[in-house]
Amino acid sequence: QVQLQESGPGLVRPSQTLSLTCTVSGGSVNSGGFFWSWIRQPTGKGLEWIGRIYTSGTTTYIPSLESRLSISMDTSKNQFSLRLTSVTAADTAVYYCARGNKFVSGNYNRNFLDIWGRGTVVTVSS
Amino acid sequence: AIQMTQSPSSLSASIGDRVTITCRASQGIRIDLSWYQQKPGKAPKLLIYAASTLHTGVPSKFSGNGSGTDFTLTISNLQPEDFATYYCLQDYKYPWTFGQGTKVDIK
Hints:
The complex is a heterodimer.
Chain A: E1 3-7, E2 11-12, E3 18-25, E4 35-41, E5 48-54, E6 59-61, E7 69-74, E8 79-84, E9 93-105, E10 108-116, E11 120-124
Parallel strand pairs in A: 2-11
Antiparallel strand pairs in A: 1-3, 3-8, 4-5, 4-9, 5-6, 7-8, 9-10, 9-11
Chain B: E1 4-7, E2 10-13, E3 19-25, E4 33-38, E5 45-49, E6 53-54, E7 62-67, E8 70-75, E9 85-90, E10 97-98, E11 102-106
Parallel strand pairs in B: 2-11
Antiparallel strand pairs in B: 1-3, 3-8, 4-5, 4-9, 5-6, 7-8, 9-10, 9-11
């Protein structure tokens, strides 16, 4: 079955760039009908959806991070990635990648996140 | 951004109880809502999408209802494995937003 695995540095210095990769196994990141998202969760807090990328390359980001965030896809490696610039302590969190799926009902797409990676802890500290 | 407000923030229940969690959207979101279960140190798991459709493999003890602004997640016959934090997520409009979570623990 499809599995996702996040990877990247656990520690990033303030003002530096955070780069994370999500490797997809058991399926193709280029599969039609799916999209790929990043979600983060500060320690002891709730979940925050931060962005997604379609197989077409179209991206959507949370406005609060839009100026610092980019999500990309590498189909040759079956991966998608997150890049967050100028990080601060507020970016410290567990970062999850997830597969987005949809259910068509009444002429609308109902979207949801059906497969998640285990998450990777990122600490921003000097 | 659409605000999702869950209530209660936490609840204590006994084995075998039936509990209901509410999620309210700050504007109408049709049925564009999903529910997730998260256990400590683990990734969230999808339970329900399109407000009331049970995800594959999720036991029927979980049920979802609602449309527009008010939604519920009901868990019947609580078992030890159901004690967790539950989140709703709206996908009606970007940015997608989660509720703040409802922690269900053992009384």
